[in-house]
Amino acid sequence: MSKSIGVAALVALAAGSTAVAGSNSIKLSNLFDDAKGSSLAIAAASDALGAGASVNDLGVAVRTVGGLGGNSLIAPGITFATASGGGANSAPSTVPVNDRVSAPTAMGISVDGAQLALPPNPSGKITDGIGMWGDQLLSFSLDELRTAGNFGANQGFQFTARAGLNDFAGPGGSVKVAFLVSDASGVLFGLINGVQVDVSESGGIFGFTGAQPGALTSAGNRLVNFDVFVPGEAKFITLLSLSQGDGIAEDHTVWGNASVTPAERGDIPAPGTLALGVIGAAALGRRRRA
């Protein structure tokens, strides 16, 4: 079994990479009503409430609805054991959507972190973000976004989101929210519930192998924050809602204000060239054989 580069994000952060001051973040849910080939300027001008994600949309590389109880394609040529994070073979009836929790006519996204009664206009917009149901994944092509924004080929990004169970989700919800960063050949690193978890590869399939945080639940912690540097060598980011195999009735997962912001330096070098002394060159071995 071979271990992926689990410290890439930490090294890049230690090197002082920050978001561009005054720059516009790219709201990922805003891309769901924009065709491939659109510019980011055009994408930012439209924000269709309830628009569903499609692989024909700008930046969307893979969309999988249900069936995460085994291995799943997360990017061209890259397979991930979604079951390793608690994915199951449920069958959600909707696709990921813009600014609503799970369907074009569902309630809005709210990420305060406490269960709320339904608002007077439950289907109106409350907060920007991506609404998903349990056992869904959505991958974005960073190269498409780099092209659409006229960025450099190695532009790094800062990914931020407040993710977990929507404030209006009822009792019984339990999910893990996972975030993966991949290059053209495999997964660089991954997080579950905002915490970095070891990722390894065996037989061409990647999966979580490290200790994991517990599930987010309606009765406990509902939401977590993600603030992750995505290095310039990365080609894809993947958002996952993993049901833990106990049904998806209230697994109304949201990624509030999910955005990528161009990093301060236009072309960020690969992590192996950044501040090796912070963690150690040995830790940067690329998918080393165990």
The total of helices stands at 4
Order of SSEs, N→C?
A: EHEHEEEEEEHEEEEEEEEEEHE
Number of strands: 19
Mean pLDDT: 85
- Which spans of ≥5 residues are poorly predicted at pLDDT below 50? 1-22, 266-290
Helix content: under 10%
Largest sheet: 7 strands, antiparallel
- Evaluate the radius of gyration: 18 Å
User: What percentage of the residues does DSSP assign to strands (E)?
Assistant: 25-35%
| Shape estimate | globular
Count of folded domains:
1
Between the first and last Cα atoms, what is the distance in angstroms? 6 Å
Structural class estimated from helices and strands: mainly beta
Write the layout of secondary structure elements.
Blueprint: E1 2-3, H1 8-14, E2 26-27, H2 40-44, E3 60-65, E4 72-75, E5 78-80, E6 97-98, E7 129-132, E8 136-141, H3 142-148, E9 157-165, E10 174-182, E11 187-192, E12 195-197, E13 199-202, E14 205-208, E15 216-217, E16 223-230, E17 236-242, E18 253-262, H4 276-279, E19 288-289
Parallel strand pairs: 5-14
Antiparallel strand pairs: 1-13, 1-19, 2-18, 3-8, 4-5, 6-7, 7-18, 8-17, 9-16, 9-18, 10-11, 10-15, 10-17, 11-12, 13-14
